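Sample intake sheet
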Amino acid sequence: MIIFPNGIQAEAVIFDFDGVIVDTEPLHYAAFQRVLEPLGLHFTWQEYVETYIGFDDRDAFRHAFSTKGTTLNQDKLRSLIEQKAAFFKDIIESGVSVYPGVLDLISHLHTNKYPLALCSGALRSDIDPILATLGISDCFDIIVTADDVAASKPDPECYQLAFQRLQAVHQHSFSMEVTIAIEDTPAGIAAAKAAGLMVCAVTNSYPAARLDQATFVTDSLSSLV
C-alpha cells in the first residue's frame, strides 16, 4: 500500500505524461505553430493553455480548423499530425525539462513493485524517445497513448483502458478505488474521475483553484517521494 503524506492510500498509480513528468507543453505548442502558422490557423499560448492542453493532436487540429470555419478531412488531418510529430521530434532533440521529484517518485514506486501505468494524450512516437532519454522506459507496466483510443481527455476511455490493462497485468490484485491518477489539467482530472479513479493534481500547468476537482492537489511531486 502506498501512503501519501496527506494520508491518502493507493495500491496502483497511473501517470499522465506532458505536464506531469516533463515540461513539454511549450514544445508541443511550438510544434503546432510550425504547422499552423503557414495556414493562417495559429493560436496564442494563452489559447493553448485555456483550450488545447486537454486535447490530443487530432482534436487540437480539428478545433483549430473549426474555429476558422475551415473543413478538415481525414487525409489532411493525418498529414498534419505527421508534420507536427516530425517538428516535435526535432524540437525535443534540444532536450526536455523534467519536473522536480517525479523521477525519484517513479523510481521508488517501480523499485517497490507497485503497479504503474502511463496514460497520455500524446502520440507514442512523441513519448518513447523521452522515456528512453530519462531512463524510465521499463518502469511502466502499461502505456496508453492517443494511438490506443478514439477520444481525447476529458473522455475517460484512456484511463479506463489503462486501468483494465494494468489490472490484467497484475492479475486483478487491486481495485479502481485504490488506484490514483496523477494529472495536471482539468480535462485530465475529469477523465480520471469519470473512470472511477482517485486523482492527485500537480500545479505544473494550472493554479490549484483550477484543479479543485481532484482528490488532492500538490505544488510538486517531490512532496510525495
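Comment: The mean pLDDT is 95. Residues 74-92 form the longest helix (19 residues).
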